[in-house]
Amino acid sequence: MTSILVDLPWLSLLVAVPLLAAVVIWLVPGLQKLARPLGLAVSLLVLAGAIAMVPGFDAGGGYQFTETYSWIPAIGASWAVGINGLGLVMILLAVALVPIVIAAAWNEVRLPEAAGSGETGSGEPDTKALDRRRAGYVALVLALEAMMVAIFAVRDLFSFYVVFEAMLVPVYFMIGVFGGPNRRPAALKFLLYSLAGGLVMLSGVIYLLVQTGGGEQALLLDNLAGALEGNYTAQLWVFLSFLIAFAIKAPMVPVHTWLPDAAAEAPPGTSALLVGVLDKVGTFGMIAICLPLFPEAVANVAPYLVVLAIISIIYGGILAIGQKDVMRLIAFTSVSHFGLIVLGIFIGTQTAMVGSMIYMVAHGVSTAALFLVAGFLTQRGGSAQMSSYSGMQRVVPVLAGVFLISGLATLALPGLSGFVPEYLVLLGSFEASPAAGVFAVIGVVLSALYILLAYQRVFTGPVDPDRSDLPDLGGRERWTMVPLVLAMLVLGFFPAPVLDVLTPAADQFAAILGSAS
Amino acid sequence: MTEQLVLSTGEAVLFWVLAPLMVLGALALLFARRPVHIAVSIAGVMVALAVLYIALEAPFLGVAQVVVYTGAVMMLFLFVIMLVGVDSTESLTETLAGQRWIAIVGGLGLVALTIAIVTRATFASPVGLEAANADTNPVGVARLIFGDYVFPFELTAALLITAALGALVLSHRRRLGPKRGQRETVEKKLATFAESGSATAVVSAPGPGVYARTNSADMPALAASGETLDASVTTVLRVRGQVLRDEEAAAQTGRVAMIASGAPVFDTTDEAQLEDETSEIEATATESEGAEGAEGADPAGSDHADRDDAGDSSPETDEGDER
Amino acid sequence: MQDTPLTNLAWLLIAIPLASAAVLLVGGRRTNAWGHWLGVVAAAAAALLGIGILIEMLGLPEAERIHDLHLFSWIPAGDLSVDAGLLVDPLSMTFVLLITFVGALIHVYSVAYMEHDENRRRFFAYLNLFVAAMLVLVLADSYALLFVGWEGVGLASYLLIGFWNQRTEYAVAAKKAFVMNRVGDMGMLIAMMLMFASIGAVDFETVFAAAEGTNEGILTATGLMLVLAACGKSAQFPLQAWLGDAMAGPTPVSALIHAATMVTAGVYLIVRSAPVFEGAPTAQLVAAIIGAITLLFGAIVGCAKDDIKKTLAASTMSQIGYMVLAAGLGPIGYAFAIFHLVTHGFFKAGMFLGAGSVMHGMGDEVNMRRFGALRRSMQITWITFGAGWLAILGIPPFSGFWSKDKIIEAAFVGEGWQPWVFGPIALLGAGITAFYMSRLFFMTFHGKARWKESEDSANESDKDLPVQHPHESPLLMTVPMIVLAVGSVALGGLLAIGDTFTHWLEPVTGHVEHHDPVIAIPVLIGATIAIVLAGAFIAWRQYAASAVPVTPPEGSVLTRAARVDLYQDAVNEAVFATPGARVTEVLTEADTTVVDGAARGLGSGAVGLGTWWGRLQTGFVRSYASIMVVGVVLAVVVVLATRV
Amino acid sequence: MTLVHYLVLSGILFSIGAVTVLVRRNALVAFMGVELMLNAANLMLVTFARMHGDLHGQVIAFFVMVVAAAEVVIGLAIIVSIHRTRGSASLDDANLLKN
């Protein structure tokens, strides 16, 4: 079976299919009624396709499923894809989350309140407009899926940049059109931050092209690796330009402030994809692009990044404690966790590197679950302020249970997804720098505080009589959460399959940093 | 290209005669007040340019210049000037702060820079078009146009058609009321007549200059009742104040008494009969030098007439023009 | 090697309660009808299996009693590779039996105790979850897996303390317990980091084998961090503050988790890590000092509390102080620490259940000043509680005598200043323990009733007293109490005579030669009994023979301090909570004003610049044209200027 | 007398046209200024064509003429329609660009 399966242009197909489906769903009016089931079917198909790649994947075999097509030879740009263990896992995470998000947002997309955006005609219950709006959302999610697959698969710097920027488009609309009351400024803030980072990165790409002399396929990552060897100044500048883009994306302190706003205003499904997968592009880029391309610069800058990462961990944790809005709280927990991921990347040990990689997956799962379940809650209660709720555990026990499990996974309770990665990062960091390890451990206490504070405020205490009749999770909602909860448990107890895939990649990247420093 | 082009003395003479004239003509753009004057003067510049083109071994362009610019473009300008009001003079006082200074500095800068560049640049020795124009200039140009440039040339065809259509669309005016045909016009006229009892509402206005003494177009006709009919003079002359009304003519026709009375004879507000429109007798004296004395005789009346005239004439003129 | 079919099934010990918990949690309301019995069955099955394994183990020669069952590869991450495996040896089996046996009894007790709670099924799910997690903790063969159980019991504890979380203060207590435990867990994590960095592994076998050759500094640091972890879990000074508040949970929870099992995990950790502590005498000493401090701390606090459960909690703290002290004394103390742990598990659980029975009969009243003379209405409770009371006092031949006395003896062993400090403290602690436990006992069961049967009481002085109808608890509650009381009476003697228990643990703790304490043993025993009797007598005189005021008297400075747990919360509040809250506040503010403000400042700066430039946009074509002309001129000038 | 004189003349005409656009408020006059600028450019093209002996310059000038013709048609139509709606052919009255 392998030959035909491997020979197919899998990755390009995984990008093309959802993109095509998105366009079709968006443009063909007759399909708009069926947009949600169709979107779900397409996303499941993509998931099946991604899973079908797994048997043909050889964990120790470097980049696989590679394809290379010439695109713009004049600037050395190509469409090249290929994945190693990290890419495979991230793609699987992305395509697994998409059907869940589509299912979770099944009825959540509604027409904007009256004059909100002028998209409603006269305000009467307009099923056609509603269908159109829902189709729009599904199309955006599918388009985003295509981008997510692409960004983790591309092996060409120019394509990477293009996808990196193109991803902003669906997200911008998902926030700006489908978000909460302050969606416009939030979406704009997200866009401006990301664009600023992207443009700095573009200047880096151009500088890189100039430094390496260009030529056909000059921007293939494989051709770029080692191209700047010995040219330390160039390495440093290009690395810094990439780093700014990735730091904004990964939200690191102090360029994190777009995330809480965006997460608070975006629909929960969007937040789940945004924080769960999209922001991982930042850390993914640090690993897959910065390390092979600028090893010497990374090795020299790494200590500062470690300090910054630790600041992120503690700062994000403290800020999370101080939040009153549950969505913003989750966003800040992510800032803290991204700090740990970045710490693991730049601390320079293999253990921490593996930890960071699996952290990206685990955090994707648990944060997505948190956002979705918090979304279910705010949708019921009509408010994201924690003070609006009290004693919800008695009212919506299942919802409370899922929130608690997701929260516990977030605070790295052993046996749930968060633990193994955090453990690996901490142990690996301590190995290289005891001080870094000890400071990072403070995040452990903070995480317990912010998650349990949130749980305490929302779910415990006397039952609020105004909200005592909210319905618990319905069948559809329960089934969307089941895969996430299962994933959290599996990643907690049997992370071995994932680790087996990631470890060779981590060895390789950690070795780059190790030999450079 | 070793062959050195030598400019003939004749060409030098031609240039030195034409160039100052052209600059002078162009300066009309800056200093003349009436658009018509400017247009004519620019047309002259363009003809001169055509001559220079011919001198520059570009006879085809020279001819095209005359046809396109002088013949078409500038005439189009003249038409539009007529449309928007040939009489409009423009005040040369500047309204934007600092604009004049910027213009002077920018203009002088441009002149200085272009002159500096072209005089200080080192050009290859001129070649001349002898060789290129071997098969006559139009043929040479045509080879290029229908050879290298055939695609752009075709594109210009599309461009011209698009421009023509665009002009149609831009100047098209949506009908706001029902279409007014002959029947409606007649009914309107009769309705006005029934209302005012004025004969001019139904009959067409007499032509100007019907007396034996002066037959010119600037002489208003007389009504049967003896008063002058201002409407008989064309609007253009009226607007420019060139209606003839010397004292003598006034005396002959016994208008003095009428002027003194100051009473308007016709109501002129009806838009339906613009062509037939008449004005007060007093108005005839407004700007004519010959009527100074008469005007002085009754300042109040003339003031009143002035205002009426000014108020009526300008919209009416416009309406008439557009039709 | 003999075949050990039951031992190989040790994973079932964990799996059975875990599966039961999963069924109860996932099944939801559908399992309400029979859920509690499933919980009981699961706990009992685990207990039976535990007994089976014990019997199997007893049939093996001593050297073969240690089994390491490999389950699966858990974290195969290159440099660090952790397998999930179970270590079945005498030490872990001791705990397994304590946990499953006491656990099963408390499950039975809870069936009746929680009968009227609509969430009883959930309660049993949590209890099962706890049992599973606790078994993971004691059966783990690596620190990493131990940590799973370590945090798992923390979670179960959190859920159970906050079981009645509709009361905000209970929810806060639950959170406090979890967070303070997390502070201890930091120690655990750092200890594992140290092991990984220096030894490269975190499983017991490798670490213990390598410990001998490892630098003492690292071992000391590791040991100190393990002590920190133990402090968090076992409510030792300075992380003791959560235990009192943890009494917010239902009483069976207090009995199982906060008396018998979970809080003793710290002792287990220290004893299990013996090879690490062997190389780190400083860490050992610190453990002993902490044990001694907590021992006194808990005892003093216990004397002043009027809440029956909080008194018991303080007592627990104090008793665990004994155990930590013993564990800190090194090999001579390990076995006694575990021994005391086991006997304490029985008698303290029994007393908690007794307290629960009292509360059950008294309408959930916990204030001992509202009790009194309950002996008549609650005969069984009185007897079982009395057995526990005598056991904790250390009256021979009750259990406590055998274990506590050994610790006191061990505290007097050694050289230099240590025996002269730890010994008297342990001795003094025994006296104070006798006082406050007797106070509790007398205030509850003896003296005059500070309640009345009915409203129309003849006695004028009864006017303000509350009406109560004390009654004995149902069979489901009394049977476990009786079983535990039997254990309190007999277990100590059974295991101590002939040093059965010490021998049993020898494969783990190693054989220790007998050391003589600095004071002769008979003298010590005599002194202990004397001081205990003195304490009990004072309590009897004050609380049984004379009237107990319903409202607490003002008391001395020490009493007032002890009532508020020696200002532990005030200190925590002042040192951590208030500054922490302030930092949070300031940072939250700074994030919006400074960090985000900077970003927004950039934005508004751009807007300002745009507005300023926008003034050029007059709308007049001629202005634009002039800008163009000037621009062209300038551009050409620049080009020319650079050319020149 | 050299061909440069033609270039100078072209420059002067161009500048006059440009200044016209800047100072004259009447849209028609300004438009004529634009035409003059185009013509000046044409003169330069033709001159250079002669200078280099290459007819391409003339061809370009020819295209300029054609495009200018189209431009005049559209421009004048715009002026007429503006005059019709705003009653003025003054450039300063058409300042809606500001908004």
Folded structure, characterized:
The complex is a heterotetramer of chains A (517), B (323), C (644) and D (99). Helices cover 59% and strands 1% of the residues of chain B. Chain B is elongated. A two-stranded antiparallel sheet of chain B has the order 1-2. Chain B contains 12 helices and 2 strands, in the order αααααααββααααα. Chain C has 644 residues and is mostly helical. Helix content of chain C is 72%, strand content 3%. Chain C contains 25 helices and 2 strands. In chain C, a hairpin with a 2-residue loop joins strand 1 and strand 2. The longest helix of chain D is centred in the C-terminal third of the chain and has 31 residues. At the A-C interface, helix 8, helix 14, helix 16, helix 18 and helix 19 of A face strand 1, helix 6, helix 7 and helix 24 of C.
Between the first and last Cα atoms of chain C, what is the distance in angstroms? 98 Å
Name the shape of chain A in a single word. Answer: globular
Low-confidence stretches of chain A: 114-123
Overall, the morphology of chain C is globular
Question: How large a portion of the residues of chain C is in β-strands, by DSSP E?
Answer: under 5%
* Content-based structural category of chain C: mainly alpha
Topology:
The complex is a heterotetramer of chains A (517), B (323), C (644) and D (99).
Chain A (H helix, E strand, L loop, with lengths): L1 H6 L2 H18 L7 H19 L10 E9 L4 E7 L1 H20 L22 H27 L3 H10 L1 H11 L4 H30 L8 H4 L7 H18 L8 H8 L2 H11 L1 H14 L1 H28 L3 H22 L2 H32 L10 H4 L1 H14 L8 H14 L1 H26 L15 H19 L2 H21 L1
Antiparallel strand pairs in A: 1-2
Helix pairs in contact in A: 2-3, 2-5, 3-4, 3-5, 4-5, 4-12, 4-16, 4-21, 5-6, 5-7, 6-8, 7-8, 8-10, 8-11, 10-13, 10-14, 11-12, 11-15, 12-16, 14-15, 14-20, 14-22, 15-16, 15-19, 15-20, 16-18, 16-19, 16-21, 16-22, 18-20, 18-21, 19-20
Chain B lengths: L8 H23 L3 H21 L3 H27 L13 H22 L16 H10 L3 H22 L10 H15 L24 E2 L5 E2 L5 H6 L6 H6 L2 H7 L30 H6 L1 H24 L1
Antiparallel strand pairs in B: 1-2
Chain D lengths: L2 H21 L3 H26 L3 H31 L13
Helix pairs in contact in D: 1-2, 2-3
